[in-house]
Each structure stands twice: as structure tokens, then as C-alpha cells.
Amino acid sequence: MFDVLRQMNAVRQIEAADLMIGQHNFTLMFARAIRAATPDSQLVAAKKMTGAAASTPSGQQIARMERELASLQTQVKSVEETYGIDNLHLTVARGYVAKLLANTRITRWLSYHRQEYLGEFQKIAEIDPQPEALDA
Predict the structure, then answer these.
(1) Does this model's pTM top 0.70?
(2) Residues with Cβ < 8 Å from 122, sequence gap 6 or more?
(3) 124: Cα separation from own chain's centroid
(4) Phi (first) and psi of residue 49, to 5 degrees
């Protein structure tokens, strides 16, 4: 991956690293995609490349990749903003369902009148809380 980053000038390397951090994606394929989307003016004069690395995407492909990347970044930020509160709500709901199922009268009523609900509630109550939620 670092070999791919070295093919870019210093400013573009920083931008590429920022993209990789933002996406939590540090793979060689992602680095190659960023390199492919990099204009020639931001590349270091390199040796002539051969094979698959020599082919460069068209302007339309680069524009499409940039649009998709911007969309993904927006979606990731949206999920990051609500993750904590959503996790808290799910943990509280799970605890409430588990407490309801501990009451034998409620469990008996559900088994006679709403068997399908009882099965789903039992699945919810058996969900283990995520380790990150316990650390927070």
C-alpha cells in the first residue's frame, strides 16, 4: 500500500491517507483506486508501468468513483452520528423485553394468544449486548 502512496506527490498522499482514515479502509485495492483517481499532475514521475497497473480509468469512471466515495462518506458519517444513541435504545429495549419474559403470566398469555410474538421476543431477549456497548 505504501508503494502505491509513494507514487503520488506529498499533498495527494495526505489526501489519500485522509480518505483511507475516513473510510476505515486501509487495503491495497482502495489505495490503488485512489491512485487511479489521482490526476497525472499529482503523481510523481514514475517508471513506465506495465500490465494491469498501466491502464488508467477514463474521466467518466473517475467522476463516478468520486461521486460514490462522497456518497459513502456521507453515509458513514450519518451512521457514526447515531450509532451510540441507537445502541443505547436497542440495549434498553432488549432489557425491557427480557424483563417482560421473566414474568410467567405474560409468557403464558403470549404462548396462548400470540405464539409468533413470543418466539420473536425470546430471540430479542437472547441477543448478547455488543462488547463496545459494555465498555462505554
Answers:
(1) no
(2) 101
(3) 24
(4) -95, 150
